[in-house]
Amino acid sequence: MDNGQQNAITETAPHWYVLTTLDPQKAEKCLLEEELSCEGKPSQQGRFQFFIPYQFLKLRHAPSTSEAGRTSLPHGRIHVAANNETRSILRRYIFIRAHEGELVKYLGGEWNRWTRGRIQFYLDGHKNKVIVADRMMGKFIEACSDMRLRFEVLPPVEGLTAGEEVVLNTTAFRGEKARVLSIDHTSRGICLSLGLQLFSGSIVIRLSGLTEGDILREGQQKSPIDGSHLIDNVQRRLLTILSRKVNGKQTPETQKRDQEALVELFNYRFHHFDNDAARRHFLALMLICARLLRDHVGQSELTQAALAELDAINAKPTAKAATDVRAYLHVALCIATGQPSYRDAAKEYVREYQPKSQALRRFVKLIRK
User: Fold this and answer.
1) What does the pLDDT look like over 42-81, one tens digit per residue?
2) Which of 114, 131, 196, 235 has the most CB atoms at less than 10 Å from its CB?
3) Which segments of the chain have a pLDDT < 50?
4) How far from 79 is each of 93, 96, 186, 278, 294, CA to CA, in Å?
């Protein structure tokens, strides 16, 4: 909203506010109940107006044939796909027109505190509530019915700007300062390119495909749970790619997409972990990634590192036999080297210790094939 619009809005007038929820159906039900409760109370009627794009844009299906029995024209399917994509993108957004005080009081009710579908204000990069002028809201509601328009939600990057100096939190240059070269919004979220100067600026290394988690900004400290989230994410995506490959379900399109995903995942190979278990687990995942990428240099280096970690585990007199990390390393070495002994060790581990990790069980099942 520009300054002219901001000044035109008075504090006493009701405004359109942007809110979010994980359950738009439940939100609509609650808002309708609130409307019904105000019936017969003239002072309360019209207290809230609301617009829920997800409910407004109904799921559509492209018919296979026209009325004449012929195959539908392609543009009909394109319009349906555009509608359903917009519906998915706008799913979590709700727009309510009300006085701020009344809306805050309504959302603070007991009904809205302990629920998965909790409605809450959407905040901008400066942690302020987002207000939409009535005229703009009218245009937005009208636009939602236009199938020619394509919607895209670009999340704020908390004021991050090109040229800003940040600290790398990944790759071999972790802890070094770099400058933001570009900020792109992709289907996978924010994608950053950074420039790292070496040797008094005589060489600049461009690091692409990074995320917000790969950098630290002034005064920011890394969250201790970032590492576990990274491992879970990489593991989930590797399992999907490996499963498709092993089961022969790759197409040229998925093969290209998988290759791009592997390149993105392999960028994390220098990520630092503070404990041995997480570091070894992630090493195993990166070795699998290198093998799928056919990165021979990376595969060789990571294979040697995995063997060294196995030796370190076995060298401890108190080493636990029942540790999933050992099995993950066996799985990765089996995939990387093709040696049956590593596969047999992983299978024996699952048979004897019955690990709770479903991911580990899936990896072992895949290397059996």
Assistant:
1) 555 556 788 887 766 654 444 444 443 333 333 344 444 4
2) 235
3) 1-10, 59-83, 223-225
4) 22, 28, 22, 46, 40
Residue 97 structure tokens: 């027109």
Which own/partner pairs from 255-259 qualify as long-range (CB within 8 Å, at least 24 positions apart)? 258/292, 259/293
**For position 182, what pLDDT does the model report?**
83
- Residue 238's pLDDT is 92
Q: What is the C-alpha to C-alpha distance for residues 86 and 187, in angstroms, rounded to an integer?
A: 13
Q: What is the residue whose two structure tokens read 């420039």?
A: 195
**Burial of 154: CB neighbours in 10 Å, binned 0-12, 13-18, 19+:** exposed
Closest of 88, 95, 90, 73 to residue 27, by C-alpha: 95
Rg, Å, the chain Cα set: 27
DSSP state, residue 185: E
φ, ψ dihedrals at 120, nearest 5°: -145, 160
d(CA 170, CA 242): 25
Torsion, Cα 36 37 39 40, to 10 degrees, reads: 160
Backbone angles phi, psi at 277, to 5 degrees: -60, -50
**What is the Cβ-side half-sphere exposure of residue 329, based on CA atoms within 13 angstroms?**
24
DSSP 356: S
- Identify whether the C-beta of residue 168 lies closer than 8 Å to the C-beta of residue 194: yes
pLDDT for position 289 = 92
State how far the Cα of 143 lies from the Cα of 139, in Å rounded to an integer: 6
CB 333 within 8 A of CB 307: yes
> What is the residue type of 59?
L
What pLDDT, on the 0 to 100 scale, is given for residue 112? 77
